[in-house]
Amino acid sequence: MIAWNRWIGFAAVGLALCLGTARDGITKCERLDPQPPQCGDCDGTVAALYGSACEVVITVSPHTIVPASGGPWVTVHVDIPYSIVDTASLTLNGVAVAWTKADLQGNLVAKFESTAVREIVEAPRTTLTLSGMTVEGMTFSGSDTVAVKD
């Protein structure tokens, strides 16, 4: 969460100092620690300043996949603002995204056809990695491990 100090014109976002105004938004961010950038910091601005790929937190649902059965979708909830994602770039272990939306917090939700995902998982566990790009061209990825039952 960004806490604006409207008198001085800065906001502390995690361990980044972001300059701008409450009206105009963040215009510049500077990292205060050596950790790799997170895509949610300043709506991706911190990661963009450093030009590196950023890591996102993902949650795959269902968390247990049964290749012989299952629903029509594997859903991935992602801790990155939907508005900064190039949704056409999204893949889950090489499987193209079927459709996307924003959740109630404005973060990305990506749906993948379960038949395609069931073909790439192996028992007893598989790590699924979501990869994509922001509209600014920065790459991001995140992984979650699911159980696989035969």
Uncertain stretches of 5 or more adjacent residues: 1-15, 46-50
Count of individual domains? 2
Topology, number of strands? 14
Q: What structural category arises from helix and sheet content?
A: mainly beta
Helix content, binned percent:
under 10%
The percent range for strand residues is over 45%
Mean pLDDT: 79
Largest sheet: 6 strands, mixed
Task: Please tell me about this protein's structure.
The protein folds into 2 domains: 3-52, no CATH class; 55-148, Immunoglobulin-like (Sandwich), CATH 2.60.40. The chain is mainly β. It is 7% helix and 52% strand. The chain contains 2 helices and 14 strands; from the N terminus they run E-E-E-E-H-E-E-E-E-E-E-E-E-H-E-E. The model is unreliable at 1-15 and 46-50 (pLDDT under 50). It has helices at residues 45-50, 114-118, and strands spanning 3-5, 10-13, 16-21, 25-31, 54-55, 58-61, 64-65, 73-81, 85-92, 95-96, 99-102, 107-113, 125-134, 139-148. Strands 5, 7, 9, 10, 13 and 14 form a 6-stranded mixed β-sheet that branches. The chain has a 4-stranded antiparallel β-sheet with strand order 1-2-3-4. Strands 6-8-12-11 form a 4-stranded antiparallel β-sheet.
